[in-house]
Each structure stands twice: as C-alpha cells, then as structure tokens.
Amino acid sequence: MVQEHHARSLHWDLRLERDGTLVSWAVPKGIPPDPKRNHLAVHVEDHPLEYLDFKGDIPAGEYGAGHVKIWDRGTYEAEKFRDDEVILTFKGKRLKGRYALFQTDGKNWMIHRMDPPEDPGREPIPDDLRPMLAKPGGLPRDDAAFAYEVKWDGVRALVAVEGGRARGRSRRGRDITGSYPELRELGRALGATEVLLDGELVAFDADGRPSFERLQRRMHASETAARRLVSSVPVTYVAFDVLHLDGRSRLALPYRERRQLLDGLELEGPHWRAPASHVGDGPAMVRASREQGVEGVVAKRLDSPYEPGRRTGAWIKIKHRRTAKLVVGGWMPGEGGRRRTIGSLLTGFHDDEDGTLRYSGRVGSGLREGHLEQLTALLEPLRRDSSPFDARQPPRGAVFTEPQLVVQVKFAEWTHSRTLRAPVFVALLEGADPAEVTWDTVAA
After folding, report:
1. What is the pTM of this model?
2. Structural domain boundaries in the chain
3. What contacts 230, CB < 8 A, 6 or more positions away?
4. How far is it, in rounded angstroms, from Cα 405 to Cα 347?
5. Are 47 and 21 in contact (CB under 8 A)?
6. I need a surface site. Which of 99, 241, 273, 433 has the fewest CB within 10 A?
7. Which of 151, 300, 325, 410 is catalytic?
8. What CATH architecture applies to the domain 154-277+303-312?
9. pLDDT digits (tens, 9 = 90+) for 104-148
C-alpha cells in the first residue's frame, strides 16, 4: 500500500506486508515512474497491519501528525527481500511494474524502477519554456470565439509541481521559489500531480484588488526576508493555464481544452486560485473589470494553442487607463542621443489644503519628436533655479521651470505616495489653468 501523507513534510509511505507486519519506507518525492530517476526512500520502523486501512487525520502533537489518504493499494511479488535490498513487482491500480529498493547509508535507501516507463510516451516537465505573451489591443470582433479573463497586475511565473514540490520561474527563467514561500503549500496541495502551470503572482490590497505597489515589497526580497513578509504582504498565485500535465505536453491543445484541464485541478487554496474564464460577452467583462478597479481584461482565442515566448493575436490584452491633467514643473534631460533635450517631464498637482505644488512623478513614454520640439520651445523661457515642488523632490539633475504648463497623461494607478504608475504623455493642454490642477481633481 502507498499512503500520501501530508505531515510537516509531504511524503508517500510505502508499506509492504511481510511476516505479520508492514515494512515501511517514507518516500519524499513519491514513487518514480521512470527508470531514469531514482528517489530517496527512508526506511522507518515497521507498522502494524491495521495501517493497511488507515486514512484520515493524525492529531497534532502525535507522531506523523497530518492528513493521510490512500494513494494506491494492491499486491506485490518479491524476487529478493534482504536487509539491504528488495526487488519486487507491484500489482496495484496506479503502481505497477518491477522495482528495486536498495540501502545506501543507514536508514537512507533509494527506490528505482527497473521496468521501462509504464507510459512510454511520458515526458519530463520542460524547464526552458517562456510564457506566451498577449498583444495590446481592443475587443476582438468575433466575440464568441474568445474567452475573457481578468488581467492581473502581478508578476508572471511558471510553476512546476513534481513529487509535491513546487518550483517557480520568472518570465525570463530565473528561479523565484525562495522569494515566494507560498508556492511550497501549492506543491503540497497538488501531491502526486505533475503539472506545469502558467499564471501570475499577485498581492491584494485591503479591498481585495491587485496592488503592484504592495507586490514590489516581495519582488526583490531575499528568501529570509520573504518568509518574514508572508504574513504582512501575502502573495497569491493566480494560475490561468496548464502547459504540461502528468507526463504529457499540453501546448498543442486549444485553449478551451487546456482550460478544462485547469478547472479539473480544482486550484482553490489560501495562496492559490484559478480565476474565472467567460466565453463571449467581452464588452460586459470589460465594464465589470473597470468597475472592480482591476487592470483590464485578456481575451484568449478558444481554438489557440499555447505558443511559448511568442506574442500573438490569439491573446489580446485590453488595459484600462486612467487620465489626469497635471502641471509641468520641469524636466529630466534625456540619455544618449537625447542628452540635450527633454527625457521626461516632471509633473505635479496642487495640494488641496495649502495650495503647494506636490511632485507626482516623471512622464517620458509617449513623447514624440514633435512634442519635444514644442515643449522645449515653451519650457526653455520658463527655467528657474529652484524647485517649484514642495516636500518630495524629483531626482538630481532635474531642470526646473515655472509651473505654467498643463499636460494630459494616461496612467495605470496612483501609488500610496501619490505617484503616477506607468504614465504616458497624451497632449499639451494649451490655455489650461495650472491652479485648477489639485489632488481632488486628479484623483477623481
């Protein structure tokens, strides 16, 4: 019999009836399905025969405390059963074939499959895939051919689960497992399931909305710091695709079928979930996501395969952008070939109480050659030596001006420090009154 044992450390208990008792090994990564991989098997004390039927919970404080379920049961035929080596053939529902257990050092043994894989087409989880990417755009015309998901404002991550252990990799392939201890619990929950998931790591604010600002506290934390931050800045893995499952690549399957596989995993836990996916009715999904204050929507074509590393029209990201009028208080010089011109505008708004100009961040994206020529001509005569901003200041090297120009920008959100996130220049608003640009108006 093999029991899946969710104790302090997930493992599988292999128990063999012999001479009126159960000879037992704890196998941390499960029984290997392929002869190319041996797994550690720790020889533990023999157990009474009553354990053959045991499943349920062992109370906290007792030996082996945790949840136990029966992973497989059946019979075996032994070719050899010595104190340091066992060779046998399993005849279970899930576990079948010829195996060897051999002692390596004291209680440490190894378990090795001697037969070819029961599934000859079984493939290992790949470790070099890159996530499929979405193209920015609007709602597709053939609405019924797409499913719509929320666009999460998080960090993309591929998570591989094998033998109850989860490993996370960033979009560029960097191992991020240590930075997100929450992933370990996902591995334990999936147990013997071997799967490669695509999704995002998300930090939610007090209102349950994704907050990239909160997530930044976790993104570059060391493993030690991450463990400390788990309680104050918890992260949730939002899984939205299955790339590999139980020894089979699922990349060629259409999105519709991959989504069914994902739903079958029933991913719902304290730090992981599979979000809803809605077929058709994209406009309603966009309206609802805007009302909920999330970043946007991703439209995914139902018949599309998963194309690692590619940005195709099969996935379309429809992002919500807020707009605001802001006062220009100077600029940061450009870099490289733009050293002598404007690199980004320094923007701000007036405080509602005392009327002082408060710095709101730099805006460089969206500035075209024509914009730069026009802005340079207008800002040069307005140069001043001192900063027009009160309290928080722009970076060193800033060129300051009288706060007389107003521009319109679009952006993702305001941070808690009242700084623009992901701003893009839209237009110069000639004739606009800078005095009317207050926090009350820009935050609306």
Report:
1. 0.76
2. 2-113, 154-277+303-312, 322-442
3. 181, 182
4. 10
5. yes
6. 433
7. 151
8. 2-Layer Sandwich (3.30)
9. 999 999 999 999 988 888 899 999 999 999 998 899 999 999 999
